[in-house]
Predict the 3D structure of the following.
Amino acid sequence: MTPPAPAAARDRLRIAIQKSGRLSEPARALLSSCGLGWRESRDRLFCYGESAPVDLLLVRDDDIPGLIADGVCDLGIVGRNVLLEQAGEREAAGRPPASRELRALGFGGCRLALAVPEDWEWRGPEQLQGKRIATSYPALLQRWLAETGVQAQIVVLAGSVEIAPRLGQADLVCDLVSSGATLAANHLKPVQTVLESEAVLAGPVAPFTGPRAELAEMLLRRLDGMLKIRHSRLLMFQAARERVPVLLQLLPDAEPPTVWQVDGGDCLALQALCHGDVSWQRLEELKRAGARGLMVLPVERLLA
Ligand code: PRT
Ligand code: ZN
């Protein structure tokens, strides 16, 4: 395979995603839903974009902010926790920011939280004064401690953070939590959120120029459409003209509807994009309020 070209020589967009891990499949699925497709390569580190000049780089999530900073790739899908931790490290080293969050993507949700042994009675952050906190996120923890005015010792561990209190390496931990099962299995309980996280689309601080700017804009437009319709449904129904104001009050999460006149003017047909759950219960409420022929349709694409 020909090695990927350096940034200056590229007119194709390059997106880094996690090779394997929690974010890799949802990231691919989201990009595919935006109309992108790739030819798989044998080494599976670089996938050539077939349907658009947008290539994929499959890497470890921790490498993504650095690849963006170095211009090796243009965009990346990574946890906010990783992006902000590395931004904090750069800041601490006196280097200017090099990447930023462009969009929150709504998957990979978790939180960076302080967790203490189960038998602690939690009375608030001041209890952490002088304690040892094990974490893989020293920059985020340091920032939170500084904001909170607490002085504690940060014990940096690359992994298996939750076992540190039992091994006597630390008094408590600051780690990622989703279900909380791992903490519970280690007799720890979360007491304080340091950062709410999810997968984000990250890009450089400086705007793109040339053909890659157009490609990035196209991708963002499609992505915005997909993110907007993720929980949306198209609702269609008919109703007598005088019932319509009441019916629209029952649809506070809907976009302004498209309305047609049927039956010479007394009956209207409406179509509205609803951004919330359109449950059976809501349909029954609408029916009671005068709607007929209610129909809920999935929305596949939206281009604003
Ligand atoms: O190999 P590579 O370096 O690419 O992968 P990785 O092992 O560093 O990352 P991976 O795949 O574990 O996580 C990638 C991203 O997923 C993280 O950076 C977060 O943004 C996000 N994410 C969402 C999580 C979790 N949920 C999560 N639960 N990352 C890690 N965890 C860990 C957590 O720390 C705990 O130890 O999973 C464990 C189980 O969590 P509970 O609370 O469900 O028990
Ligand atoms: Zn990682």
About this structure: The mean pLDDT is 94. Residues 211-229 form the longest helix (19 residues).
